Amino acid sequence: MAGVIQTTVRRSMPASLLLRVRHRSPGLASCLVGGALAAGLGLAVFTVLVTLLWVSSPYPDSGPGGALHIAASLWLLAHGAELVRVDTLSGAPAPMGVLPLLLVALPVWLLHRAARDTAEGGARADARLVPGRTAWAGVVLGYLAVAAPAALYAAGGALRPSWTGTVTCVPLVAVVAAGAGVWTAYGRPSGPLEQVLGAVLPRGVRHLVLGPDGRPGVAARAAAAGATVLVAGGAVLLTVSLGLHAGETRRAFGRLTEGWSGWAAVLLLCVTLLPNAAVWAAAYALGPGFLLGAGASVTPLGAQAAPLLPPFPLLAAVPDPGAGTALHGAVAALPLTAGVVVGWFVGRGAVTGKGRFGVWAAGRTAGAAAFAAGLSGVLLALLAGLAGGPLGTAALARFGPVWWQVGLATAAWLGLTAAATALTVRAWRLRRTHGRGDRRHGPGRAGRAGRAARAGRAGRVVAPPRPARRMPRPRRGWFGGRKPGRNAAPVAEDEPYLLLDHDADDGDHDGLGNTPGAPGLPDPFPSDDALSPTAHNSRAGRRYPEDAERPGFKEA
User: Fold this and answer.
1) How far apart are CA 222 and CA 422, in angstroms?
2) How far apart are CA 467 and CA 395, in angstroms?
3) Which of these, 102, 127, 401, lies nearest to 272 by C-alpha position?
4) Dist. CA 439–CA 450, nearest whole Å
5) Would you call 213 helix, strand, or coil by DSSP?
6) Most CB within 10 Å of its CB: which of 170, 325, 532, 555?
């Protein structure tokens, strides 16, 4: 009998392990399938478009095999991989590195959606969140499992991908997009961002990028607004220039191709290149301009004669060669407007009482405006680097804006304008707030707003209350089904937060002097033994920071 009992005890432990493996294996399998499905859908979209254009073309250059090779190459180009054309007249391979920015949106969206849905664990409201590392690694591996044979197949065509760009860009896009999707599924926790910012930014400016409530900081919002104004203004300049050269734009379609199928192909190519043209126009307004070949620069001060280029419709918007006029100089209003927008965001945030300091001093406000201008320069430099590239050899080796020149020009233009605007907005809002507080509480009593305004002018620190966290809304799944909220499902008990471990305790996580586990505050990273045995089966048993702020909440 004792032997039977001992055998039973020995078999119970492997059974428990087998149960855990059986419980976890569908999570990794679904992540692999989700990544492969995202890659397959992207390839299918490009294949359908290229096949339709090939079928409708009256004079196709190749058979269906050539069309499939081009579709695979274009799919890799959407990830940033440079293409190489081998069937040139000179016999030398010609690189084609201009990435249509609109194509990038498709693989990034598919990867983000696949990683988010697989991390959420399914469409059921009580589904358990898949561990972050499992979801991220599974989606990336599944995506690369489809990308590898697609790259091998595309290498046999006339327009083949560069192996250096393929090996570098495709995994990079998969890792970043899938990581963002898993981060979204876990409710966008600020812990990973705080660790990244802590490694690259000093502590004094960290709160300008990421606020204490996990939302973007004042400088981050201002930089995003400035970059948006520049790109949107570039799109407006492009539209105006195309309208002024409408006749040349219309004639370019007829000179480049014939028939409605060819016109549709050229129009589709122009649509995918519209974001690139908007970035080029923004670079033109900032001053550095762009290149139409080696030594052929186009700036507001003047445009040099470009080498022989095809009659492409978007190139009709390029100014004529010669010295610039007052009309060309009027484009300087765009960076000035962007600087005013950045300064307005910073000046408004300097007196709202959010963040580490209630009301900023004048020096801190000007420094925040300059920092936001630098962030805008980084964003524009990144866009300029992606929007240009080579279109051949020799004269066409450099095509588009120079990224570092665009970044420096953006920081210079926006830095001066944003600092002056931020100080003006700050002074105006302080005076308005001070006057409102005096009128509300009488001439002899200054209210809280008046005291905060005077404390800001004196440089003292006013600690604000911690803002409430936003509750997520339900989302729709792949096929229209309603998905649960990001924090609605219980998390796997061995990994409650995303990809990273708990944040290192540096003493002040939120900039208010409050630390996790301090008296009166819930611990945002509870340990497993701090939870009850039923804590992982329902939300009522789990301790979340946002739960303590809900009316009527009682801790178990």
Assistant:
1) 11
2) 56
3) 102
4) 10
5) coil
6) 170
Q: How far is CA 332 from CA 275, 317, 323, 410, in A?
A: 20, 18, 16, 12
Looking at residue 503, the DSSP 8-state letter turns out to be P
Euclidean distance between CA atoms 174 and 38, whole angstroms: 10
CB-based contact 311:255 (threshold 8 Å): yes
Q: Angle, to 10 degrees, between the axis of helix 101-120 and the axis of helix 132-154?
A: 140
Burial of residue 180 (number of CB atoms within 10 Å: 0-12, 13-18, 19+)? middle
Helices 274-286, 259-272: inter-axial angle, 10-degree rounding: 50
Q: Inform me whether the pLDDT recorded for 233 exceeds 60.
A: yes
Amino acid at 433: T
How many whole angstroms separate alpha carbon 486 and alpha carbon 242?
A: 45
Neighbours of 463 (CB within 10 A): 13
Over residues 157-185, the pLDDT tens digits come to 889 999 999 999 999 999 999 999 999 99
Of 233, 334, 339, nearest in space to 279 by CA: 233
Establish how many alpha carbons lie within 13 A of residue 230's alpha carbon, considering only the half-sphere containing its beta carbon.
37
Q: Is the pTM of this model over 0.90?
A: no
Q: Chain-wide mean pLDDT for the chain?
A: 78
Residues 6 or more apart whose Cβ sits within 8 Å of residue 319? 241, 298, 303, 328
| Closest listed residue to residue 489, CA positions, set 186, 83, 283, 280 | 186
- Closest by CA position to 146, among listed 37, 31, 26: 37
Q: Is 394 left (phi over 0), alpha (psi -120 to 50) or beta?
A: left
Q: Is 473 exposed, middle or buried (0-12, 13-18, 19+ CB in 10 A)?
A: exposed
Q: Which helix (H) or strand (E) element contains residue 159?
A: strand 159-161
Taking the C-alpha atoms of residue 408 and residue 416, their distance in angstroms, rounded to an integer, is 13
CA distance 313 to 266: 9
State the Cα–Cα distance between residues 486 and 72, nearest whole angstrom: 35
CA–CA separation, 78 and 104 (whole Å): 5
Tokens of 30: 């679904």
CA dist 400 and 298 (Å) reads: 10
Euclidean distance between CA atoms 222 and 414, whole angstroms? 11
**Strand (E) positions, 195-261?**
none
Residues composing the chain:
556
Q: The dihedral of CA 40, 385, 172, 73: what is its sign?
A: positive
Q: What is the mean pLDDT of residues 417-433?
A: 91
Grouping H, G, I as helix, E, B as strand and the rest as coil, residue 351 is: coil
Measured CA to CA, the distance from residue 272 to residue 106 in angstroms comes to 11
Helix pair angle (333-349, 218-244), 10° resolution: 160
Measuring CA to CA, which residue among 487, 555, 490, 497 is closest to residue 521? Answer: 555
Half-sphere exposure of 533 (CA within 13 A, CB side): 0
What pLDDT digit, counting tens, does each position of 338-384 carry?
Answer: 999 999 999 999 887 554 456 889 999 999 999 999 999 999 999 99
